[in-house]
Amino acid sequence: MTRAREVIVVGGGLIGSLAAFTLRGAGADVLVLDADRPGAAWRAAAGLLTPDGERLRGTPLHADALEGLGRWPALAAALERSGVPVHLRPGVTRVQPGGGVACTPGEGSLHPPSVVRAARQGLEVVAAQVQALMPAGGRVRVRTDAGDWLAGQVILAAGAWSGAFGVPVTAQQGQALLLRGAPAVGARYGPPARGFSRYALSRPDGLYVGATSRRSWATTPDAHAARWLRGAARTLVPGADVAEVASFLVGLRPVTPDGLPLVGPHPTLPGVLVTAGHGRHGALLAPVTAARVLALLEQGVSA
């Protein structure tokens, strides 16, 4: 039997869950279909809200990054009404070459897994892998391994796997490290090393240290990245070298050829809006993306 819903969000990660949360708050009937794939970016994301730390000043993303940063306090408060804290924290410092620390006011961090859990409270989330999206008499047929649905509108937010549905998105692997028993620190950046950004921040699940970056679909950690991350931890947080490794994290960041996210109508599928390709800036840009999706649906822009 084919089931029908007003809006189906394909992908229940940070972008998809926040889009669904925002649409439900506006009164939409929303279903989230999530494949729960290994390598989902939100599970390995740092949660940094740092336009300057990510060197976005002077880029096409800077205005959206600042808007996202400004939207987070109100959005965090709305999410936390679910009873799940998202751990929004102000304050970022930078370890200077040769020593010393500089503070950047206005930036901060949060905990992406907690954001996803909070956003999903009250949402219907079905474990299903979407196999195809097809026009169906003014609606969209969503074919999955758990059966078919018909949707008036589909939001494609499948992260790196969005490329399977005809949009230019692929994977950029990032690896990070969680340490247990390390000294507590606020979010801090170190000088880049070997082309990678180095940063550390205390989170509810441990001291997070990141992050590598390479074009790969691999979802398992590797020894070279582990050594680099331990070195980054020693540089950024004195005393971290004796901390216990809680886990190695691997995430597949969704990236586009020009580095800019896709937020708008699908190029060939009527009734499908694309929200993918946010790369390493998903947490920072998610509030803007969710607001833009809501505005597009309210304007009737879907094809």
TrEMBL record:
Annotated GO CC locations: cytoplasm
Give the highest taxon in the source lineage: Bacteria
Keywords, sorted A to Z: Oxidoreductase
The UniProt record lists the FAD dependent oxidoreductase domain at 67-292
State if Cytoplasm is listed as a keyword.
no
What the entry lists under InterPro entries is as follows: FAD-dep_OxRdtase, FAD/NAD-bd_sf
Pfam assignment, any one: NAD_binding_8
The UniProt record lists the keyword Nuclease:
no
Annotated Gene Ontology MF terms? oxidoreductase activity
What is the protein name stated in its UniProt record? FAD-dependent oxidoreductase
